[in-house]
């Protein structure tokens, strides 16, 4: 059985959709297949409605994220890195995000990132078309989302543009929701949210972007904490945070050797550590390459988003020092090590003790209380238009 009822059953069994959830009717009555193309991808598997309609329908009503666009819809060749750029999010994560948003009947919502339109349809079902505005930077995605919504009987305002600038003509909004990850909460969202309103957005740089920032607006600033471990695609206005090692690794013979006593696995294997390191080391990403020979050795790779700098740390079990190589204008491992040692000095706090304040001067990460600011986060590098 591949129907909305099956999705309701799955989500109920998982505890993602309690019977009293205000979103239960939307999940049951909004048909997800109306928001999906004939072909999409799940975990590197392709589902094609034409060749295998039953398998396609099974995936539609599974609790899975469905990739609907690769590389912004451009054909970059078979050898190009396949970067997902639009999707229908995992329903469990959609519900978590909407619960954090704390939508009330009568609220107006600005959704940054229209995607397929499925999330906007849930909002329209709950609040009414006139209470929902959704925006996407990709004109093809925005156009298709609008068409999908119309097929399902909904007509919110669908805009094409940079959603990080908000929708001032529709402001103020009671709630602002982002369906893509940002390294910086745009102050435009704060300005366009009512006093006492809420902003929910996947937040973080390239090292750790698996947090929802849940911020309440008061006195022209947004203040809150972090929740969940979502995995969302990143905004297109900032440099990509990830890719293939071979595209970022270069000038091996010109690198500078060194050694460190910091075990790279103490950073890579701990989400709390990565979160705190990410607040200090921006415009960078990392990957831990595990040896496949049974040695349990690994290489910790660190790359700058602009591809100018990299660092490696060679992990060998049982060692107390590790070999380091660094190249480029940034000494990335030095940055990471300093951020890690700062976190240790703070007493190794978990992410749940962190908070974020966004004001006209930027983003300020604090520990335990708002006046205990640990650092003001540097703005992310932007793609030049």
TrEMBL record:
Q: What is this protein called?
A: Protein-L-isoaspartate O-methyltransferase
Q: Which PANTHER family does its entry note? A: PROTEIN-L-ISOASPARTATE O-METHYLTRANSFERASE, PROTEIN-L-ISOASPARTATE(D-ASPARTATE) O-METHYLTRANSFERASE
Q: Does the keyword S-adenosyl-L-methionine apply?
A: yes
The record's keywords, sorted A to Z, are: Cytoplasm, Methyltransferase, S-adenosyl-L-methionine, Transferase
Q: What is its main location?
A: cytoplasm
- Which Enzyme Commission numbers does its entry carry? 2.1.1.77
Q: State the family it belongs to.
A: Belongs to the methyltransferase superfamily. L-isoaspartyl/D-aspartyl protein methyltransferase family.
Concerning InterPro entries, the annotation shows: PCMT, SAM-dependent_MTases_sf
Listed GO CC annotations? cytoplasm
List where in the cell it is found.
Answer: Cytoplasm
Organism (species):
Streptomyces mobaraensis (Streptoverticillium mobaraense)
Q: Which GO terms describe its biological process?
A: methylation
**Keyword Methyltransferase: yes or no?**
yes
């Amino acid at each position: 059985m591949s129907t909305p009822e099956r999705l309701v059953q799955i989500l109920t069994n998982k505890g993602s959709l309690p019977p009293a959830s205000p979103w239960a009717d939307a999940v049951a009555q909004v048909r997800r297949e109306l928001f999906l193309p004939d072909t999409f991808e799940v975990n590197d598997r392709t589902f094609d409605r034409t060749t295998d309609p039953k398998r396609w329908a099974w995936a539609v009503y599974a609790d899975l994220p469905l990739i609907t666009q690769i590389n912004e819809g451009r054909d970059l060749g078979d050898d190009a890195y396949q970067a997902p750029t639009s999707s229908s999010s995992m329903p469990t994560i959609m519900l978590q995000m909407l619960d954090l948003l704390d939508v009330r009947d009568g609220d107006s919502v600005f959704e940054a990132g229209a995607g397929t339109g499925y999330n906007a349809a849930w909002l329209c079902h709950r609040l009414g078309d006139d209470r929902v505005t959704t925006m996407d930077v990709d004109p093809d995605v925005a156009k298709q989302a609008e068409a999908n919504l119309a097929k399902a009987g909904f007509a919110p305002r669908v805009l094409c543009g940079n959603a990080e600038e908000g929708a001032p003509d529709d402001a103020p909004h009671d709630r602002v929701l982002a369906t893509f990850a940002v390294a910086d909460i745009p102050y435009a969202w704060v300005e366009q949210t009512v006093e006492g309103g809420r902003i929910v957005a996947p937040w973080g740089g390239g090292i750790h972007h698996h947090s929802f920032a849940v911020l309440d607006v008061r006195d022209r600033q947004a203040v809150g904490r972090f929740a969940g471990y979502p995995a969302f695609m990143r905004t297109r206005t900032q440099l990509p945070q990830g890719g293939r090692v071979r595209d970022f690794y270069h000038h091996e013979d010109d690198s500078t050797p060194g050694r460190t006593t910091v075990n790279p696995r103490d950073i890579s294997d701990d989400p709390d550590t990565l979160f705190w390191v990410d607040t200090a080391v921006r415009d960078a990403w990392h990957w831990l390459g595990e040896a496949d020979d049974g040695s349990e050795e690994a290489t910790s790779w660190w790359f700058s988003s602009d591809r100018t700098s990299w660092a490696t740390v060679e992990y060998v079990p049982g060692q107390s020092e590790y070999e380091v190589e660094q190249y480029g204008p940034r000494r990335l491992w030095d940055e990471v090590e300093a951020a890690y040692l700062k976190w240790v000095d703070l007493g190794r706090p978990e992410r749940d003790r962190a908070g974020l304040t966004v004001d006209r001067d930027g983003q300020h990460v604090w520990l335990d209380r708002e006046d205990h600011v640990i650092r003001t986060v540097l703005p992310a590098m932007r793609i030049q238009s």
